[in-house]
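hiii so my PI (J.) wants the whole complex modelled not just the main chain, which honestly fair. so below is everything: two entries, each one labled with what it is. i double checked the lines twice but i was tired so who knows lol
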Amino acid sequence: MFDFVSFIPRAVVQGVPLLFGSTGETLTEKSGNLNLGIPGVMYVGGISGVIGAFFYEQSLPSPDAISPFLAIAVPFLCCLLGSLLMGLIYCFLTVTLRANQNVTGLALTTFGIGVGNFFGGSLIKLSGSDVPSIALSATSAYYHRALPFAENLGWFGKIFLSYGFMVYLAVAIALIAAFVLRKTRVGLHLRAVGESPTTADAAGIDVNRYKYLTTCLGCMIAGLGGLYYVMDYASGVWSNNAFGDRGWLAIALVIFTIWRPNWGVLSSFLFGGLYILHMYIPSGLNLAVKELYKMLPYVVTIIVLIITSLRKRREDQPPQHLGLPYFREER
Amino acid sequence: MRKEGKEPLIHISKRAALPWYVAWGIRAAAIVLALVVSALICVIMTGQNPLQIYGAMFTGSFGTVRKTWVTFQDVAMLLCVSLAVTPAFRMRFWNIGGEGQTMMGCLASAACMILLRDVLPNWAVIVCMVVSSIAAGAIWAVIPAIFKAKWNTNETLFTLMMNYVATQLVAFFCVVWESPKGSGKIGIINGNTHVGWLPEIFGQKYLLNIVIVLILCVLLYIYLTYSKHGYEISVVGESERTARYVGIKVSRVIIRTMLLSGALCGIAGFLLTGGTSHTMTTTLTDSRGFTAVMVSWLAKFNPVWMILTSLLLVFLDRGASDISSKFGLNQSFSDIITGVILFFIIGCEFFITYRINFRKAAGKEAETHV
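here's the output for the full assembly
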């Protein structure tokens, strides 16, 4: 019998980094920016949180002196700051300097993964402290802490309540983003900027400001995915390249949800499930087949991409001006 | 944009074409600026004299004869993938699937080396490798192209996803053909018999690769600049509507160009597996498919300039990894330096394409400053 009670929580924790990433990227793409730097941003978000937590733990006189508020706030703010800087680099290059978005995004990914792995690998040496490895168990315990009564509720508690606070934060952010996009005037303006910046500009919307704000906000949300991965999922242990291809999977998820953050909630858990499905499929001794299962999220994404382009429903299409710079005097 | 008063402080307009030496002057200035910034980062990290660091970068790439050969071999491989993605870029088809297409080339070559080694003589195996890797790369590229041509499916996202499907396929076959059993990876293929290995010419292991890529580079330059196909690609890139109006079949150009693009990636995969490393892993292409996008773009999609830009990126990568081992830093240091330099080069294109006009006294016509 397939063990859903152990499978679903694992799928959820796999899905949460993707959910953060895809919510951030959806907002960004709605403003017409195709930010392929998301994998890099998520690395930077993760490592910024780690750096914050590391120095916070180092500064404590004794491990008992840790304050719950600071243990959560310091890494959180560092993560937001780091991802914001990445977002600003991207915006400055693509919006102000009108550079090609694909090239800028890929450069940002190279840079971000480099920053993550560099500081992850040499933080201890650079700070001159004498700990053997980066294991932020004290701070990550606060990220990992579930509701106290979850234990007593059997399978219900395990499936719905056994997570750290960032899981619920991810769901909340996705739902809020969906609401803002569909139901508010700001969302309408934002969609106008992504679909047709010329029209938006003519209607008096400040195109560049919208692009800057949403892209930076999107990066900050995506960065939280990196933070969640290190502080909660990996229990505060940073290992280089462990984050893997999740950033690209987050971009795949944006297509899969056809640019709807609220669909992202369940889809990300589905993707998380597909990501770990190979561990649950009894394939006997044949390890090779497991590699094929890992292909599933990408294949599914391609199929969705093809189907949406075949059906040509206007509300399912990518933002029309996605990936193109906007220059008022260029008609 | 800043808005101060009624007339904005700065006003940006498009330039007419700059003379090439000014354009390259601006690019050179950006690179110098980037090197200064990277030097600052180096100094903060290592506390060493930046000149020493750049010296170390140079010896890291060209210090010994062997290192120089490896550098040139890396340049050739990166150049090959960059050449491959270029025709597609010139028609504004954002093929970021070079990684997957190259990987399929590697996979096809490795398959021929493993499956045909006992069946066919060496030369026939090599012929099969060439044909099958070209076919594999081309198939991987033409799938997104068909969907783009027929149904306008977003090619950036499609080709991106195809990369990971290819990665997992390679991972699958790595386990299927693992040797020794249980290791989960393919070691050096045909290490004793050298079946399917490209021959060494003039006693140099990498020379044949480099020569092949240089020939491809010249051929592609001629194809893009002087042939009718190349002209059609440029027209489609400039404006699809114009292309349709003058009677170019856009969908046919897209599919044909992507076949070429994928075939070249397949050749890159063949050279990687058959000529350089004689193995197959999921990391064999080493993100060259993505780096190639930047190489090609930096060179303005001109195959000859690409020799320089790929040399620059390989130099940075090898040099910076040498520094990191010398000064006990993490390998990824090179990615940071590469990233910083790319940001500067990407940013400087703005100053080549556009002119910034500052506001003079109120009411007067804005005068032009460069």
